[in-house]
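How it folds
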Amino acid sequence: MVGCEVVGSDISQKAVNLCEEKHSGDKTKTFSVYDSNYTPSIKTDLTMSLDAIYHIFEDDLYLKYIDDLIKTSNKYVLIYSSNYNDDKWQQHVRHRKF
């Protein structure tokens, strides 16, 4: 796509490093770690959350993440995640109803 830019963020530094390495020659793609200090700097027509929500355990970070996801979209928000509450957390998974 002409004019298409990808701005990716992840709570895992390892995932960010892998994306930066894989796309090192592509100036249309940037990646950063998402944490409580992250401040989105752009608005897009589409924001996506893919397999991320259930990896955020902290309530305040989860609420900030959902807020940022919605605020940075001009048109569409796509979420791929479980969508139910479960009190039995697994090692790296906390299911939430959003």
The first strand starts at residue 6 and ends at 10.
